[in-house]
Amino acid sequence: MNFQLKFKVNDKLYLKDPEKSEIGKSIIKNAIELIFDMGFEHFTFKKLAVKINSTEATIYRYFSSKYKLLTYILNWYWSYLEFISELKTSEIKKPLEKLEKILEIITHHNNSCDEVDDYDISKLHSIVISESSKSYLVKEVDEISKEMIFNPLESLCKCISNIIIQAKPDFPYPLSMASTLLETAHDQHFFSEHLPNLTDNHQNAEHTNYVLGYLKHITFNLIK
Questions:
Q1: 189 and 129 in contact (C-beta within 8 Å)?
Q2: What is the pLDDT of residues 64-118, one digit of tens each?
Q3: DSSP states of 23-55 as a string?
Q4: What DSSP string describes 140-195?
């Protein structure tokens, strides 16, 4: 079952809400395609304008910089992942089974959360793996954080941490564990695919299965 979603993304990231027009939605959809194809470093508004058969000026009416466009895309993804996590764990009674489902979701195991018509979630996931740290590993992060730009990521980690607490109420680091699982899912997938000597995935294949297995090992050895 596929469905369409709309999330409220922090309005400090855009000048004009892209969800309220077809050209705005096209900007987001095609930005995902281009960033996936060429990487954020090589992505420009000029290239995006060519792809959507429009002008750079049109894109600048929506976003003041490619950094804000990337962060908008990431925030949409974090909100989406939290929605999927709540949806797919709502009928699960046992906390450890909920936690296992969360690990499947954050690793996209068996395309466990690729069920939306809005954007290409598999490509968006690849962008998150390779580019998401560029949103907050910046010198101005403290000032950016004051504008609550990272609220969707923080909310997702809070959602995961609540399940950790359900599974092990006396666990002292639920938020740290939640953010570690999320970042490890991305880092280890990237390493497995591109820098395999930094991992134990000696076959350099089945990256998602490898990462899920690793996350299960560290999670259920700490929380059980």
A1: yes
A2: 999 999 999 999 999 999 999 999 999 999 999 999 999 999 999 876 555 566 7
A3: HHHHHHHHHHHHHHHH-TTT--HHHHHHHTTS-
A4: THHHHHHTTTTHHHHHHHHHHHHHHHHH-TT-S-HHHHHHHHHHHHHHHHHHHHH-
Dihedral-angle region of residue 53 (phi above 0 means left; psi in -120 to 50 means alpha; beta otherwise): left
Phi, psi of 60 (to 5 degrees): -65, -20
Q: Which residues contact 34 (CB under 8 A, 6 or more apart)?
A: 43, 47, 48, 51
Question: pLDDT digits over 35-53, tens only?
Answer: 999 999 999 999 999 999 9
CA–CA gap between residue 196 and residue 73 (Å, rounded) = 28
Residue 127 near residue 38, CB atoms below 8 Å? no
Residue located via tokens 């922090």: 10
Cα separation, 33 vs 99, in Å, equals 31
pTM of the model: 0.90
Cα 108 to chain center, whole Å?
11
Helix (H) or strand (E) holding 65: none
